[in-house]
Amino acid sequence: MVSVKSHSKHVCVIGGGPSGLVSARELKKEGHSVVVIEQNHDVGGQWLYEPCVESEDALGKEKFLKVHSSIYASLRLTSSREIMGFTDFPFSVKKGRDMRRFPSHRELHLYLKDFCDWFGLREMIRFHTRVEYVGMLNYGVFGEDLKWVVRSVEKNTGKVMEEVFDAVVVATGHYSHPRLPTIKGMDAWKRKQMHSHVYRVPEPFRNEVVVVIGNSLSGQDISMELVDVAKEVHLSAKSLDISNGLSKVVSKTSTLHIHPQIDSLHEDGRVSFVDGSWVTADSIIYCTGYSYSFPFLDTKGIVVVDDDRVGPLFEHTFPPSLAPSLSFVGIPRKIIGFPFFESQARWIAQLLSGKKTLPSWDDMMKSIKDFYHSLDEAGVPKHKTHEIANFEYCDRYGDYCDFPYLEQWRRELVLATLKNAEENLETYRDSWYDEEQLHEALQSPHFSQLSHI
Ligand SMILES: Cc1cc2nc3c(=O)[nH]c(=O)nc-3n(C[C@H](O)[C@H](O)[C@H](O)COP(=O)(O)OP(=O)(O)OC[C@H]3O[C@@H](n4cnc5c(N)ncnc54)[C@H](O)[C@@H]3O)c2cc1C
């Protein structure tokens, strides 16, 4: 798989969130020239909190959204800070900042800004600039390397730029475009309905009867904070087999109720559940997750999003027909995000320089086909194609680019947090039972590598 030739490429990275930043760092390290295009005024992606959401459609149905971040004001990390850092830049505690293990979103934003400054990435980033079109310049032209046209718009001036790149890395995230259920009567329901993408604070729901749909992490968090201001909170879950942690919260809170899925919504404000019960609600908040969306990308149908399966992608990263000049960083879910994005970025950088080569088109397509087949066999629905939940997969992935394996303490800390959250939903961010693994983590080379600064 290793080739000796090495070339520097002109690469466009779309997005200045964690995936885009680490891509820029890896590409730069490998000797490529890099332009990062970021629509916002700062780096951070989801972690650049946006309090003003009035301009956004409440259900986020537009093709190009106005607001990227779906982070709400009170959000604290669901994963502990120790597991989150990139391999060579630990997410360490800093005096005068939020020193908690599960800090607020702002602390992670500051970490990303530090990362950006430490590796001198800012000069590569064009802020306030939105990519509106990415297409192939010379697809299928015999003897020519594929080039990409990127059209972007400077948001303040409206100035349009069109540039040609050797490669494009798409790092635009996938927690912005709402994934909405289809519910009978949804269009006829006249009261307030919104997706958690635009939820920020509980105050607008004071004294209201609120139905929250979806008991994922956001659904639970939002329900628990609404309980303090709303008259009643009705949490509609896919299954009534809820975690012990959530059961404990429900049992001590008289205004939080669990319901099964919704059957229908009615013009008079009634929300009917599939068990025949109903409530009259003032508001509905859809905490139903997010969809992949690349409204700027034109691959002539080579890459498509089908029920949240982005494909065909070899190892969730490369469309075989366009690889390695088109790649995606950050598609997988249920992984330890930052180090995984870093391994993706490293592999892309090495492939573009010619240090590594991909398997043949046939072999990549076969691997994708086999993977889809294994999902079908296991009964995994299409929209969960990119849910990994497997540490070994991350290690195997890293083998493509000689990326270090996940440290044992990272794995153990992840599992300990999941277990703690399952049992102690309200308190897991402030009291824990993984002191031993935590000690091991903090003594490890990962945390001592920058201790001199
Ligand atoms: C409520 C919530 C809680 C979360 N909690 C955790 C957690 O506790 N731990 C964890 O690890 N992860 C968590 N996540 C996941 C989080 O998304 C990832 O941590 C991380 O931000 C993904 O990084 P990314 O760079 O891939 O995408 P993003 O962070 O989404 O960054 C994408 C960037 O691309 C830019 N962009 C998009 N389109 C364009 C365009 N057309 N032109 C130019 N720029 C563009 C955006 O402005 C953004 O800056 C959470 C997400 C949400 C929504």
Give a short overview.
With 453 residues, the protein is α/β, with parallel strands linked by helices. It is built from 11 helices and 21 strands. The chain has helices at 18-29, 81-84, 105-118, 217-226, 244-252, 337-353, 361-377, 391-399, 408-423, 435-443, 445-448, and strands at residues 10-14, 33-37, 125-126, 129-136, 148-154, 160-165, 167-170, 177-178, 192-195, 209-213, 232-236, 256-259, 262-265, 270-273, 278-280, 283-286, 290-291, 297-298, 304-306, 309-311, 326-328.
Task: Walk me through what this model shows.
The chain has 453 residues and is α/β, with parallel strands linked by helices. It folds into 2 domains: 287 residues, 3-Layer(bba) Sandwich (FAD/NAD(P)-binding domain), CATH 3.50.50; 107 residues, FAD/NAD(P)-binding domain, CATH 3.50.50.60. It contains 11 helices and 21 strands. A 5-stranded parallel β-sheet has the order 3-2-1-7-21, covered by helices on one side. Strands 9-16-10-11-12 form a 5-stranded parallel β-sheet, covered by helices on one side. Helix 1 packs parallel to helix 6 and helix 9 runs antiparallel to helix 10. The longest helix has 17 residues. The two termini are 38 Å apart. The N terminus is likely disordered.
